[in-house]
Amino acid sequence: MATVTEAPPTPAPVAPEKKPPRKRGRWTPYLLLLPGLLWLVVFFALPVIYQASTSVQTGSLEEGYKVTWHFATYWDALSEYWPQFVRSVLYAASATVLCLLLGYPLAYLIAFRAGRWRNLIMILVIAPFFTSFLIRTLAWKTILADGGPVVGALDALHVLDVTAFLGWTAGDRVLATPLAVVCGLTYNFLPFMILPLYTSLERIDPRLHEAAGDLYAKPSTTFRKVTFPLSMPGVVSGTLLTFIPASGDYINSDLLGSTDTRMVGNVIQSQFLRILDYPTAAALSFILMAAILAVVTVYIRKSGTEDLV
Amino acid sequence: MKTTEETTKAGGGDVRLTGISKTYGDFTAVHPLDLTVPEGSFFALLGASGCGKTTTLRMIAGLEEPTAGTVHLGDQDVTALPPYKRPVNTVFQSYALFPHLDIYENVAFGLRRRGIKSVKKQVEEMLELVQLGEQARKKPHQLSGGQQQRVAVARALINHPKVLLLDEPLGALDLKLRRQMQLELKRIQTEVGITFVHVTHDQEEAMTMADCVAVMNAGRVEQLGTPADLYENPRTTFVANFLGTSNFIEAEVDSTSGDDIVLKAGGGKLVLHRARASVPAATGGKILAGVRPEKISLTHADDAGEIPEGRNRITGRITESSFIGVSTQFVVDSPVCSDFEVYVQNIDRDPRLAPGAEVVLHWNPAHTFGLDAAQDIDAGVETVEEEVA
């Protein structure tokens, strides 16, 4: 600060009086930005650059890796692991849709109908976060256990026949099937859907509902023409907050799935930590990042949320 | 429920509230209320905040379900109909324009919901009526408060409702714009001939715009009438104080002769015409004699002899005077009332009329009105001061 506030040596006697306060004001925003920028540089920008360089290295663990601009790693990784990519997108998209279908009515209820129960329901939505992600996912292992009450009930209702026909489950098992992984993803990311939805629904002036009703809109039309369009910012951020982490997730597939449900996150994890093929792991990470970025860009453009906020 | 009288006497488009009331738990927002709004009239519900006027309006709109009673629009009992099935439209206090739709679509909303396909002509005409043709493709937040208000009116009027309900529609506008919009709304009402029910806390607004005003207080209608009738013949102290300013003298009935009631107050005598007393006068009974400040003349005590016979008089001393251009407002301390307000037009100003001067207040007895003495003299006063500010 001291260097900033010092006036330049000028012969004019008025200059030192006028300049200091203005200069201090000009630098304040940058100073306030500094901690955040430092954090981003150290924990985001540098690792990204490091990973980028890793992805174009060749060599082995014993001899060490060197940057050889070997871009073929990208192509090799993609051609070998594309099924896991496709699966990641499919599972994450399914979980996102399920989260939206489950979360929207709940968020609507909390925002408009819960009255004095609002805070209690909010706490219940957030409560799972008090337990670790891992333990919550392991709990689903018990819930969906073979011969357990849930599987038994689904079997008795012949739901499993349908899901098995669709390829979501196998035989009379739910565990170790795509359905189990999607269920786990849905459960784990549901609060990330509900919270932004609630925030945007809660901001809607209830008088707009009254106005729509007053202008001959049935409750269902009011929802379609007023409430839902106005909640689009919440829908977009909720789906992004669910889809992005879900597509990179590996815990759910690891604990609830099988080798047939491996997602790209599982591949990256094993490449990094078990096979120790760092270039392939880094390349996969970059492909995933690029894919998500592309999907998100298209999605935001299509949903036209810039207009709404 | 329906009596023969109701079905035969109902006007084509009158709004009739019969025994309508609304309670929230222990709190009664609207006491059982009967009200008829004649078709084509500009009707104002006037009262301070929390008096039940907005609740009454919302019950007509169907946004609030009455605890008891019925709402009729013409011959149709709409009490059980949801808002989207009622042929009424509302201009909301905050306008409640749809922020995601442009002005054109806001105005077209009601038509589209009723399945009307070609809305272009009607929407454009309506936007012309409210002088917003240029703004059709703007979003509500891009318009000024006055323009938003006009969109809200257009959005409601385009549906040709039987009744247009206006809930404090001018409350958010500044004074100058409010005056302008009052005239504008009055013009539109005359032009389209639709019944307007206008809720306001602004007595001046109600008097300027409405053909008929219902003054509400604590969930009840205090008095109903034309603005002039309410002003000249208030039947309660609340109405007398809420609409304009009134001076009250606590008096005792001395004697009655023909159409006149002679009152005794602070040693003097006042005359009240029987027709203007809202309570029966019995000799020895108490009565509140009221008079509006602008009806009173002020004469310096030295000239008391020049006051014609037959006028009500009171003596006092000026405590305050404030010059406000067209008139001078005096506060006079008199034995019958410690702060008598007098507005004197600035035609020939008497320089002796200054604080401390002994004066005689006198007025035509016909301007005295008599009210039931068993009520709060100051009812409705605080609210008036709040509104003036």
Summarize the topology.
The complex is a heterodimer of chains A (309) and B (389).
Chain A: H1 2-5, H2 15-55, E1 57-60, E2 64-67, H3 72-113, H4 118-126, H5 133-143, H6 149-156, H7 159-166, H8 178-202, H9 206-214, H10 219-230, H11 232-248, H12 251-256, H13 264-275, H14 278-303
Antiparallel strand pairs in A: 1-2
Helix pairs in contact in A: 2-14, 3-8, 3-11, 3-14, 8-11, 9-10, 11-14, 13-14
Chain B: H1 4-9, E1 15-24, E2 27-37, E3 42-46, H2 53-61, E4 68-73, E5 76-77, E6 88-91, H3 103-113, H4 120-129, H5 145-157, E7 163-167, H6 175-192, E8 195-200, H7 203-209, E9 212-217, E10 220-225, H8 227-232, H9 237-242, E11 247-257, E12 260-265, E13 268-273, E14 286-291, E15 297-300, E16 312-323, E17 327-334, E18 337-345, E19 358-363, E20 369-372, H10 381-388
Parallel strand pairs in B: 3-8, 3-9, 6-7, 7-8
Antiparallel strand pairs in B: 1-2, 1-4, 4-5, 9-10, 11-12, 11-14, 12-13, 14-20, 15-19, 16-17, 16-19, 17-18
Helix pairs in contact in B: 3-5
What would you note in describing this structure?
The complex is a heterodimer of chains A (309) and B (389). Chain A is mainly α and 309 residues long. Chain A has helices at residues 2-5, 15-55, 72-113, 118-126, 133-143, 149-156, 159-166, 178-202, 206-214, 219-230, 232-248, 251-256, 264-275, 278-303, and strands spanning 57-60, 64-67. Chain A has 14 helices and two strands. Chain A has a two-stranded antiparallel ribbon with strand order 1-2. In chain A, strand 1 (57-60) and strand 2 form a beta hairpin. In chain A, helix 3 crosses helix 14 (278-303). The longest helix of chain A is centred in the first third of the chain and has 42 residues, at 72-113. The two termini of chain A are 37 Å apart. In chain B, the strands form four sheets. A six-stranded mixed β-sheet of chain B has the order 6-7-8-3-9-10, sandwiched between helices. In chain B, strands 13-12-11-14-20 form a five-stranded antiparallel β-sheet, with no helix packed on it. Chain B has a five-stranded antiparallel β-sheet with strand order 15-19-16-17-18, with no helix packed on it. Residues 1-10 and 383-389 of chain B have low confidence and may be disordered. Chain B is α+β, with helices and mostly antiparallel strands. Chain B has helices at 4-9, 53-61, 103-113, 120-129, 145-157, 175-192, 203-209, 227-232, 237-242, 381-388; strands spanning 15-24, 27-37, 42-46, 68-73, 76-77, 88-91, 163-167, 195-200, 212-217, 220-225, 247-257, 260-265, 268-273, 286-291, 297-300, 312-323, 327-334, 337-345, 358-363, 369-372. The two termini of chain B are 47 Å apart. Chain B contains ten helices and 20 strands. In chain B, 24% of the residues lie in helices and 34% in strands. Chain B has two domains: 4-87 and 161-237, Rossmann fold; 245-372, OB fold (Dihydrolipoamide Acetyltransferase, E2P), CATH 2.40.50. Chain B is elongated and about 80 Å long. The chains are: A mainly alpha (309), B alpha+beta (389). Chains A and B meet through helix 9 and helix 10 of A and strand 6 and helix 3 of B. Chain A: InterPro entries: MetI-like, MetI-like_sf. Chain A: This is ABC transporter permease. Chain A: The chain crosses the membrane at residues 27-50, 89-112, 119-139, 175-198, 226-246, 281-300.
